[in-house]
Amino acid sequence: MKTGLITSNTYQNHDTGIGHPEKIDRVSVIIENFKKINNKNIVWKKSAKVKKKILEITHTFDYIRFVENSFPEKGLSFLDGDTIISPGSKNATIDAVGSIIAAIDGVQNNEFKNAFCAVRPPGHHAEKNKAMGFCIYNNVAVGAYYLLNNYKFNKVAIIDFDVHHGNGTQDIFYNNEKVLYISTHQYPYYPGSGSEKEKGKFNNIYNIPLPAGTNSEEYLNAYEFVLKKLKQFKPEFILFSAGFDAHKDDPLAQLQLSSKDFYELTKRTLKLSKTFCNGKVVSILEGGYDLLALQESSEMHVNALLEFN
User: Fold this and answer.
1) What is the CATH number of the domain that holds 195?
2) 309 pLDDT more than 80
3) I need a surface site. Which of 126, 136, 158, 190 has the fewest CB within 10 A?
4) CA nearest 167: which of 133, 213, 203, 144?
5) Which residue of the set 125, 185, 247, 301 is catalytic?
């Protein structure tokens, strides 16, 4: 089997302005790197069309309407203090959502065993009714609802290894017993949520807050608790919120992971996933703001996907 790599050229038109960390180059360096590697086991695929119904399950109707009416005809506009949009952001935003739909369909239709979506804007800070932290729609949350509604799964796990807590994903699934949300993140830190006390209505939220300066060994030891929780839940499908900003070179946080740590955590998860969901895993890009670290770490992550498919 092969690994899907889902992307869309529209990410290049999502202009966040000069000096903004969530910039076009973030996806460009990933895509160009994989083109150069030219691995025959990577299946390139474009984003799928997104039916409004799946957005309306994830976000409120009023919020979707607000977003649709916010894209400027020219120049830049702010959805919040950090989340900037331009005319080209409209297609990029919907294609980011469409990437995880295409990835899930590809896995379910046996086009490939697993997949990585290299798109922007990211999604895990977007709440039901609020844009936040560079995020507009919550891509991974849409993916989880797509699995529940279109493929009738009853147990979906989301593993978020971005250095920032995915407050939006937690908000959306806090009362949903069918979705397990697990997050490893620097704490206390932006966005302020993610304490161990936040457990969800059905004990379906599992936060692993880590102090600034956490090194590779400490992180991977903590990641064993992620795997333990997965064993208990036994998901039928796993989604990764794949942020690479826990890297030691990242300018926006202070965890101390190396690029190869992302291979290791992915490998451990995939090895375990074979026991309960036959390795069905889809990953989507979240953060990561040092370009070289992002390029290396995403390559390591996809290497593990390729190796264990």
Assistant:
1) 3.40.800.20
2) no
3) 190
4) 133
5) 125
